[in-house]
Amino acid sequence: MVDIKRWTVTEPYIPLDCGLGEAPFYEEESHHLRFVDIVKKKLHVVDLNRGPSSLITVDLQDSVGITADVEGTEDEEIIVGAKYGYALVNRQTGAMKYLKRFADDPEQGKRMRANDGAVDTSGRFWVGTMNDPTITDPTDVGVVFRLDPDMTLHRMIEKVTIPNSIGWSADDTTMFFTDSPTKTISKFDYDAVTGNISNRQLYFKYDGDEDGAAPDGFAIDVEGCLWTAVYGTGKVLRVSPDGRLIGEIRLPTRCVTCPRFAGEDLIITSAAEEDPEAHPESAQHGGSVFKVNVGVRGMPIRKWKS
Fold first, then answer.
1. How far apart are CA 70 and CA 77, in angstroms?
2. Can you tell me the distance from the alpha carbon of 4 to that of 76, in angstroms, rounded to the nearest whole number?
3. Which spans in the chain are helix H?
4. Which residues contact 76 (CB under 8 A, 6 or more apart)?
5. 84-137, pLDDT tens digit by residue?
6. Is the pTM of this model over 0.70?
7. Are 25 and 219 in contact (CB under 8 A)?
8. Are strands 21-27 and 112-119 parallel, antiparallel or unpaired?
9. Among candidates 227, 296, 302, which has minimal Cα distance to 257?
10. Neighbouring residues of 69: CB distance < 8 A, sequence distance ≥ 6
């Protein structure tokens, strides 16, 4: 029988009212945390040395689903997966300049948006796209793109509905990927030299029966375990390298979205409660950011190479 370690979080670290808080990103050199609100088009930044009172919010012209640092640039400029494609954003002013669009057709571009992604060890930026729920319901027309340092854009995974986190094993031979409505996290054989993926297999399937529950964003620790938020449950689960459930964090709101490591702390974003009348306690903290020390550090975060 597997011994499941448990943590309980009762209060937010940053009380906030994000519509869809996502993409927590730890800036290790400055000990800052940034994250986005996809729905309200916001970039939030907090100095972890000073705490929640240092929170700064920047307005964005378009929704942003994921952010990454750019190798060799000043701290003010980051690259993002945004509404229409990959863009550079000034993290002080919110000014946005598109580098590569997801679609040439304006109508298709309007219908889609970025949702999540990650940078691999070679500096390639992977971004999953989906139907924009403010325009139309999600269907399996989403695509996971890969932007290489030479600015070539590749369609890597087709027919996805709500693409969430992407990550890699420490030995760089396996890539993990979540398509939330399937309730599964897949794993692929990964070629770090070419960036190619193959041999898709099941890594983990969430088998809970909560209405609307699905794996969302994940983070990978240095022991090779995935920590996946399960939207609709108020839980983040720790899954072993061989796909077994070995840990569980319980939080005071159901709509948890994505964890990210800051040292041995796990930072967890959330979204507004979808049914506040039925779940008033969850609604109280929906859209806030949470923090819990889990006693292990995360894998290094990579920068996009331009």
1. 7
2. 41
3. 106-111, 280-285
4. 90, 91, 92
5. 999 999 989 999 999 999 998 888 889 999 999 999 999 999 999 999 999 999
6. yes
7. no
8. unpaired
9. 227
10. 27, 78, 79, 301, 303, 304
